[in-house]
Amino acid sequence: MKKIILILSLFILSGCVDPFLFSYAGGNVIYDMAYWEHVDTKEKAPLKTENDCFDKVTKNNPFSRDKYGQCLYEQGYRFRTSNLLYCFWYMKEECKDYNKFR
């Protein structure tokens, strides 16, 4: 039993096995790590605000993270993550695109 725990621990620490695979809602946990926070009130952006920006950006155009981030940024929201692993492990490209809106 100790050998199994040791081997499993080594796989997790080496990055060969994602620890979120063991949780029921792994994918949702990862996506909940990133959010848009208002500069003054420190509240998360309401879904309506995010949807309005999404609709504005995609109107007759393909989705662009740059334009979407700019829309939220202009309304006073900043990109935040609740876990450092989000940018360094899971969603590198998204963070790369949104870093200028922090």
Automatic annotation (TrEMBL):
PROSITE patterns: PROKAR_LIPOPROTEIN. It comes from the Bacteria. This is Lipoprotein. It comes from Mesocricetibacter intestinalis.
